[in-house]
Amino acid sequence: MKEPILEVPGRTFVTADTHFGQPDACASFNRPFPDTAAMQDEIIARFNAVIGPNDLLIHLGDFVGDQGSTKEKARLAASLCERLDAGRIVLVRGNHDPDRPRYREVFDAVHDLLEFRIGADDHRVVCSHYPMRSWRGNRNGSLHLYGHTHGRLEEAGRSTDVGVDSWGFRPILLDDLVSMLLAREILAIPPSRSQQQPIRRGLGD
User: Fold this and answer.
1) What is the pLDDT of residues 117-137, one digit of tens each?
2) In terms of Cα–Cα distance, which of 125, 123, 144 is closest to 187?
């Protein structure tokens, strides 16, 4: 049975790392926009070209960037959510998303880690802002979606960076992500602790 997170009449899209409002976002992440205002307008336009009022947008963190107080971030986030055509926006908090009621109430739901199952085969999807080396169910083929790295970290196994810098500043249809990752090999993980020697370090290491 699907978790309530996916009970929407339309489609589900995933994204991360928009960094709205961050003054140096274009320079820091090598984005092809003249300034932050132009970046925001173009990202919103590209989002609204594919998502609609029946759709769910899952944002894996850093909706806003490094700028201002929590009050200012909440005000900006609210104004931008109003411009997005998605029917629901669920946030998985990133390091720039304050864990404060004023900010959390902007979104339909907020999580630090989000897991759900999808499809006829009940595939587990593990969503976090940060990439994981090992995630719940990875040895059994579960999928991992993350942000934070802006396309600068080599992907491993059935995991992928869903940040806007890697996907043409557009959200990605969840079904397409699942199909892409299921075609990859399951990540090889080290043997269990009982099968290997534990790492022990002295104070001088």
Assistant:
1) 998 888 999 999 999 989 999
2) 144
